[in-house]
Design a protein that fits this description.
Layout: H1 2-37, H2 41-90, H3 93-98, H4 101-143, H5 145-192, H6 194-199, H7 203-254, H8 262-270, H9 274-280, H10 283-288, H11 299-341, E1 359-367, E2 373-382, E3 387-391, H12 398-405, E4 413-418, E5 421-422, H13 428-434, E6 435-438, H14 449-453, H15 462-472, H16 475-479, H17 498-511, E7 516-520, H18 528-542, E8 546-550, E9 562-567, E10 570-575, H19 577-583, H20 586-600
Helix pairs in contact: 1-2, 1-4, 1-11, 2-4, 4-5, 4-11, 5-7, 5-11, 7-11, 15-17, 19-20
The structure holds adenosine-5'-diphosphate and magnesium ion.
Adenosine-5'-diphosphate binds at residues 97, 368-369, 374, 394-400.
Amino acid sequence: MRPHARSMGLALFLVTVATILVLAQMYSVMVGINYIIAADLDKVNLIAGALLVIALSLNLVKVLEGLIMARLNNQLSVALRRDLLSRVHRLELSEHTRQVSGEWVSRILFEADRFQKFFTGKLLEIAKSALWITGVGVFLLLVNPLITLPVLAIVPILGIISYRWTNRLRGQFQSQRAEWDKVVGFLSDRLEGLTDIRAFGQEAATLAEFEALCERYRRVHTGLSIKRAALTSFMEVWGFVAVAMVMLVGGLEFLGAGAHTPAAVFKGATSMMPMTWMLAGTNKMMATMGMASGAALSAGALSAFVLFVKRLLNPVRDIAHEAAELADVRVSAGRILDILELPEERREGRQLPLLDGRIEFDRVSFEYEEGRPVLRDIRLTIEAGQHVAFVGPTGAGKTSLMNLLSRFYEPVSGSVRIDGQDLREVSVISLRKQVAVVPQEAMLFEGTLLENLRLGRPEATDAEVIDAATRIGADDVLARLPNGYRTPVGARGSRLSVGERQLVALVRAFLGDPRIVILDEAVSSVDTATRHAVMSAMRGLLTGRTALLVAHHLDLVQDVDQVVVVEGGRIVERGRPEALIAAGGRFSSLWRIHQSGELSGPPAAGTPRAAKP
Ligand SMILES: Nc1ncnc2c1ncn2[C@@H]1O[C@H](COP(=O)(O)OP(=O)(O)O)[C@@H](O)[C@H]1O
Ligand SMILES: [Mg+2]
């Protein structure tokens, strides 16, 4: 923040310089006109030269200020966006299921931008306007208080009006943002599911829904724009009212009608003050300004008033405008702070040493939503190095159980322990380094196959990656892709088949040499031949590691140490596979179905290249 503060200070300094230059400009014009009337051509030349220098310096100052602010802007927006994304990385996983990614995009990009632009741009703008009002106000007061005072009286009135006006706008800014979120959220969500929308012929319906959302946003937005424009032009009108007032009062003054008004007295008094003296220069200068000629106001001063009174009121208008912006920014800030207030995953904790891999679920219950238990009273011990298969119907809670083990979620009651350590107390980073999950749906990122594989261990060399793929038995499939390991996988891996993506996830997992491996239906979409190749390769890879296999295909189950049957969030059966088959319970009936399917059913063909639903 230090360099930012320095830039900000520098910008403020430049704004002050600019204000002083503007005051000098006003003064020169005023004096210049009087010289013209007095036909003092030398002095007029001098003033013209001065005006030129002032104009050039003013421009220079503005350019410098622009440069500083642009740099500051960029630095701040990078920092803010980075912080927000890092924050999103640490949120509890449940937050991500609650919000579509487009809404994060909207906040990280747009809100952060607005927020930061306000702090660099608008805040300075407000400071500038305030400085301006003070400077010009004092200047005009010194030249002629009688004309200035009524104009100055307008300032607070306008201020109050615009403050109340913009306060009322805030609610509308909020609903504008909510509408905008819906537009962005809808767009990103539906773009991800583009294939399905087209497959089901839902283009028209999607378009209609999108249009309706855009239309709703437009309505709120237009309403707001009109109100803001109305406020600005209302202020503008007052600027001209002020000019008219100056014309009237100043004209009277100029014609001498006000020679004995309090203003004249005030002028007499102020002419003795050092500030007035400085402004006016010398008594001779006062004479030049026409003050001694009997008129209450010099021609120069009157012209200066008419020319510059708007300089007094425009900043008020600008502040009103920025105040509307302020309402907007308060909404942005609120939405950014919302992110900061979301529950964060607890990441800190004891660093795990190299694990043996003994896992205990001790009376674990879990739910995603309150009152809807997904896992109930799970008690299970898995010895280090054991391989355990989890089977059961869809929605039984198998994946949820795995989620607890990699601490994506925490149990509602009971505890999960690895090597006797409660997962609540360990550092998640150190945990996830040793627990590899191969999910059912692996996420791939835009880039080459190699880059995607390397996610498991960023520092792995190409050779190491390919070696890992070979040991897993995935090399045959992956090397056959059009450009081998350099094949671009497309957005979200959409150029690979689901089965190919699953292989990528497998390689990723083993690259990191994990102590505990979770395979959540990891090869469910791989064709039978490849699956067999992978599974036989896996046998070697899994020795010495604890493995949890959520199995869809029971052929993976045959040589595990333990089978756990999960139904409705409970463990309903458990034991060695052959014992369970012999016992004739749930597993044995599943096994019989599996056996008859293997014998009569056609072998699973390669999977279609469909995008993830
Ligand atoms: N993020 C979530 N939020 C709410 N409910 C969920 C979430 N994920 C899964 N569920 C619910 O939890 C139950 C168990 O799901 P899951 O563990 O994925 O089952 P399985 O892997 O055995 O098919 C299901 O009823 C599912 O609808
Ligand atoms: Mg599952």
